[in-house]
């Protein structure tokens, strides 16, 4: 049961990442503000494209691992990928114009990635018995 819930959370996280990444392409200023930083692009959205494609790739990979039921690979990815929201949180908190409220999405993502990843890695593999 825990594995199924972890898969569901990981899949929703993947869909969320695809949405967030797509927003960096479709509404870069909105996405940057939601990320928690100010960024004066002067019409150059290179940063937004880099951030957007990173999120889209991560989201698609999460969804693919869930759909292929690659429990261990998904767990490893989530635990290792925790470095991304931690780094994002530090970046947001280092700004003089931000505080904890702007870092909350990154804190939540860190908790979700680490907890779900650990649950998937510590889950016992289900042994399927042949039906008669």
Instruction: Please report the total strand number as a whole number.
Output: 0
Q: State mean pLDDT (0 to 100 scale).
A: 92
Q: How many domain regions?
A: 1
Assess the beta-strand content as a share of residues.
Answer: under 5%
How would the global form be characterised? Answer: elongated
User: What percent of residues adopt helix (DSSP H or I)?
Assistant: over 70%
Structural class: mainly alpha
SS field, number of helical segments: 6
Give a quick account of the main beta sheet: strands, pairing sense, barrel closure: none
N-end to C-end Cα span:
24 Å
Unreliable sequence segments? none
Order of helices and strands: HHHHHH
Query: Mind telling me the C-alpha Rg?
Result: 17 Å
Report a brief summary of the structure:
This protein has 132 residues and is mostly helical. It has helices spanning 2-26, 28-35, 46-67, 71-81, 83-93, 100-122.
Kindly describe this structure.
- This is DUF4267 domain-containing protein.
- 76% of the residues lie in helices and 0% in strands.
- The protein has 132 residues and is mainly α.
- The protein has one domain (2-122).
- Helix 1 crosses helix 2, helix 1 packs antiparallel against helix 6 and helix 4 (71-81) runs antiparallel to helix 6 (100-122).
Q: Topology of this protein?
A:
Elements: H1 2-26, H2 28-35, H3 46-67, H4 71-81, H5 83-93, H6 100-122
Helix pairs in contact: 1-2, 1-3, 1-6, 4-6, 5-6
InterPro entries: DUF4267
Organism: Mucilaginibacter paludis DSM 18603
Keywords: Membrane, Transmembrane, Transmembrane helix
């Amino acid at each position: 049961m825990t594995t199924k819930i972890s898969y569901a959370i990981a899949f929703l996280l993947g869909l969320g990442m695809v949405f967030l990444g797509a927003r960096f392409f479709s509404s870069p200023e909105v996405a940057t503000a939601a990320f928690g930083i100010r960024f004066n692009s002067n019409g150059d959205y290179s940063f937004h494209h880099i951030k957007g494609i990173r999120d889209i790739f991560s989201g698609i990979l999460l969804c693919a691992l869930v759909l292929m039921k690659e429990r261990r690979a998904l767990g490893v990815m989530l635990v290792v990928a925790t470095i991304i929201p931690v780094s994002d949180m530090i970046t947001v908190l280092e700004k003089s114009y931000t505080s904890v409220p702007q870092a909350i999405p990154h804190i939540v993502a860190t908790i979700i990635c680490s907890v779900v990843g650990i649950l998937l890695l510590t889950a016992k593999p289900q042994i399927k018995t042949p039906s008669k």
